[in-house]
Amino acid sequence: MKIPSTIAAIFAFAIIAFAEKEVPSEFERLKVSHEHKIKKINDEYYLELLDLKSKCAKRGDLESANFIASVLEEMDRESVKPAEVYSEGVTLVSNNFKL
């Protein structure tokens, strides 16, 4: 009778060990997926802000352009900027606005 109970105990420990490893890998998959989606949204937002800043500056609305530039600079400090615009940079017309 000792052998079947030993086998059952080993089997139970194997199931527990497998379950413990499965949860973190599923969590990691969800975490990576979440981070990817957030990055995609942030990249899109950043590019749209660049476009809006440019449109404001072209029509002479420097107050709005400066405010948007300050938001972009904050995003730069937080490393939210998408890779394809790292070389483009952000220029402030003046420093009158803060977040």
Radius of gyration: 26 Å
Strand-and-helix sequence, N→C? HH
Q: Into how many domains do the coordinates divide?
A: 1
Proportion of residues in extended strands: under 5%
- End-to-end gap: 73 Å
Low-confidence stretches: 86-99
What does this structure look like?
- This protein is an all-alpha fold.
- It has one domain.
- The chain is 74% helix and 0% strand.
- It has 2 helices and no strands.
- Helix 1 runs antiparallel to helix 2.
- The relative contact order is 0.10.
- The C terminus is likely disordered.
How do the strands and helices of this protein lay out in sequence?
Blueprint: H1 2-58, H2 62-77
A few lines on this structure:
The protein has 99 residues and is mainly α.
Features:
2 helices, disordered C terminus, 74% helix, 99 residues, mainly alpha
